[in-house]
Write a structure and sequence with these properties.
- This protein has 342 residues and is an alpha/beta fold.
- It contains nine helices and twelve strands.
- It has helices spanning 23-36, 52-64, 78-86, 100-117, 136-146, 162-173, 228-242, 248-263, 324-341; strands at residues 5-10, 13-17, 44-49, 67-72, 90-93, 121-123, 152-157, 178-184, 222-226, 268-273, 300-302, 312-316.
- Strands 1-2-10-7-8-9-12-11 form an eight-stranded mixed sheet.
- The radius of gyration is 19 Å and the shape is globular.
- The termini are far apart.
- Residues 330-342 have low confidence and may be disordered.
Length: 342
């Protein structure tokens, strides 16, 4: 269940199709924390998750005989919750919320409350603890052995930053020429799209309403911001064209990789397919007749975040830094001044 299937979609696009990608992150992190003595046998590990990290952490805790407590997103469905409970995890699920930003903030508050109430828990902090990078070295080994030498572009959701960053760092360290293309939803602070909203957005886990320390902005060469309708188009097209049933983040990556691969035929493109499409059955795949035709879609190419606009924008990032906290504070100060002036 840990290693992905590598599926060739076109001459220069390969999909790494995972059942649950974050098994690499969770197993690597738990193993390392036990080796360091940071976590003790029998202790309970707790974290917030929108789904696939929860399942991966429950599996890791099951393997190493640790307790597991998940503060679950409103997007975690009955099938996922049943798997977590069968694996021995206890689940706190947030009440229904249409606003994923509110959902994320509620989960973090609940984790902090657990830490205050219990002395036997360790917060995994998948958003912030760099220990989650360690497990992806094994994925990098697989990619390095399976794909031919030559220029490579990795296309994947940014999320916590660990999966894409944890893959490309070891590959670049071995001398491979690797471009990293990150995907973001509108409304995420991670790469500056927080002033936009996407009413249908349910692409849980690929963006954030709070800064993530595990996102190393200077690893990314290019960014694409994609709305729900475009991600849905990619997910439906992936199933229709290649019989691959995958989640919305994979759909978005498939859409973007197709556009990139047509422009850069000399490069191999590796699409990160984080999970299956089961939790999107009703809200995405049952609506397949509504799906846009990917062949008619293209991004709005920009050179500055000031020009960012839905439904799909693309920008060369050029491995530069980005201080989310500073940007947010500057924005708050500007809003305060505008409020005073009015």
């Amino acid at each position: 269940m840990k290693a992905p299937d590598l599926l060739r979609l076109t001459d220069n696009v390969v999909l790494a199709r995972f059942e649950t990608m974050k098994v690499y992150a969770a197993l690597g992190a738990v193993r390392t924390l036990l080796e360091r003595g940071t976590v003790r046998p029998g202790q309970t590990l707790v974290d917030s998750s929108s789904g696939i990290y929860a399942l991966a952490l429950a599996m890791a805790c099951h393997r190493y005989g640790l307790g597991c407590h998940i503060v679950a997103s409103t997007t975690v469905d009955a099938a996922m919750r049943a798997q977590l409970e069968i694996l021995g995890a206890t689940v706190d699920q947030m009440p229904p919320a249409d606003d994923l930003r509110l959902d994320q903030e509620r989960r973090v508050r609940r984790v902090r409350q657990l830490l205050a109430d219990r002395s036997d828990v360790h917060w995994m902090r998948q958003y912030h603890d760099a220990v989650h990078y360690t497990g992806y070295r094994e994925f990098a080994d697989l990619v390095d052995a399976a794909l031919p030498e030559g220029p490579l572009t990795v296309v994947g959701a940014v999320g916590t930053g660990a999966s894409t960053g944890g893959l490309v760092q070891p590959l670049r360290g071995r001398g491979r020429e690797v471009r990293l293309l990150g995907l973001q939803p509108f409304g995420s602070v991670t790469f500056g799209s927080q002033d936009f909203s996407d009413p249908e957005a349910i692409i849980a886990g690929i963006g954030s309403s709070i800064p993530f320390d595990n996102v190393r902005h200077d690893l990314y060469d290019s960014l694409h911001w994609v709305d729900f309708r475009h991600a849905m188009a990619g997910a439906v097209d992936l199933l229709r064209g290649h019989a691959v049933f995958a989640g919305l983040s994979t759909g978005a990556a498939h859409l973007v990789a197709g556009w990139e691969a047509a422009r850069h035929r000399d490069r191999m493109h590796l699409v990160i397919g984080a999970d299956t499409g089961h939790r999107y059955t009703e809200r995405v795949f049952a609506r397949h007749e509504e799906a846009l035709d990917p062949r008619a879609l293209k991004p709005h190419q920009i050179t500055d975040l000031a020009d960012l606009a839905p439904p799909w924008s693309a920008m060369e990032w050029n491995r530069r830094g980005y201080d989310v906290g500073t940007r947010q504070e500057a924005r708050h100060q500007m809003n305060d001044k505008e409020g005073t002036a009015s």
